[in-house]
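Standup notes
- DV: blocked on the single-chain target, sequence here:
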Amino acid sequence: MTEISASAAGTIALGDLTVNRMGFGAMRITGEGIWGEPRDPEAARRVLRRALELDVNFIDTADAYGPEVSERLIAETLRPYPSRLVIATKGGLLRDGPGRWRPDGRPSHLRAALEGSLRRLGLDRIDVYQFHRPDPRVPFEESLGELVRLRDDGKIRHIGLSNVDEAQLRRALDMTRIVSVQNRFSLSDRSSDGELALCEERGLAFLPWNPLDVGRLARLGGPLDGAAAEHGATPGQIALAWLLARSSAMLPIPGTATVAHLEENVAAAAIRLSPREVELLAAA
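- DV (later): unblocked, structure below
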């Protein structure tokens, strides 16, 4: 059996950092509804440890996952961190219960959120700190400006954005250096094509969240099932391989709560789709 490694996807730059182009999203190591403790904390820790064994060196999390649970589990499990591991986290969302999310882009909240993430992760500086979602009640430039100040304070190495539209991304790029954008994107949801194109143009990494979109993926059939059969892979693996082939700016961060699914996802890094397969899947 071919050894599974995230390095099979190649690498991508995040400012002055370089990571393998298959990451891990740590949202699902929390409880149901991304709320509270996981049902099996040791299973969550096994997933995190196995991710590093598979050469995953980019982990994406957020203070809102749990809330606070994902960051704490990462620190409890992986510290002292390997030198090549990049942990990206996010701030700017409040949680009122399972499955409930509320934006808070006030500068005071973002500063407090960043301090909390530093404390839970046991870090002096966050490698990539992402504004989780623009707050319609707070001018976008005020929120982003606070992250610039925190970077100037030495508490953030690089700034990323999440859930932004193309206009917001352009405004951010006019203000400061951005290294990544995390928007919803998958084989069945390409509503962020414009943001992806701008990332390609400006040399930013694009982190597709919900990269599998399992519900809609199951209904695609046709070329997806054909490609899966041709490569001896699952439809989910083909969906991840398609993202990697779709753009060199892509840094998928599939999440899971099981080691078996983690290994399946990371194995997709080695699948090479033909240009014709990429075209057929895009048209599905």
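- Follow-up: Residues 47 and 258 are 6 Å apart (CA to CA).
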